[in-house]
Amino acid sequence: MGAIAHRKRAGVLAIAIAAGLIAAAPQSAGFACGYDTPQSASRGLLNWLYPDSLYVIGAISQEVAARRLPLSNFDRGGPADMFGHKFGLAKTSLEQFGAMLGAASSEPLRAPVTVVLVEPMLWARFVPTAEGLQTTVHVSGAERGDLVVITGEAVVAEIAARRLTFAEAYARGVVRLYGEHGQIAAFLKTAAQVGASQATLDDPRGGASQASEKLIQ
Description:
CATH topology of the largest domain: Nonspecific Lipid-transfer Protein, Chain A
Helix content: 40-55%
Radius of gyration: 18 Å
Oligomer: single chain
Number of domains: 2
């Protein structure tokens, strides 16, 4: 029993040391994109830094099973993605999401936001500038002070295609947010109707608007 307890203590200490090294490392080395490191290790580290973040995987699976969400391109069968076609689709969806977020009329984004897609562990960062919202796909991770959005490729694709609003995605648990309470509240207010159809945007009492009010309360 003493040896087992010793091994457990050693394991906890090793994890704590690893976490400390990650936190102390430069941003470019701290959290490599899933295209550069094994996805399983990246997801484990993600869940360590952002507790319960991988709950989005179960929530996404439930939405797919209920036919409310399509299967992620990264979870579809077929030949190996040698030419990066799936990456290209994800990159396009993230850029469209960034454009829609930058055009959100409720309140402009004031602080950087980093999004990670859990299937490929692909990170993107959205930074407000004087020229508008700057989107950078395939970054190494979030920077200190960023709001972190954890979701799936199909979720962002559906939002970009205006078949799902951010408010609906958040309410269904297929999006999780990490940051200070004020950051999260402000982002929900800005992003709630991102993904809404034009008809919904034209109706101030539309479903997306009502959903955003409930989330902010």
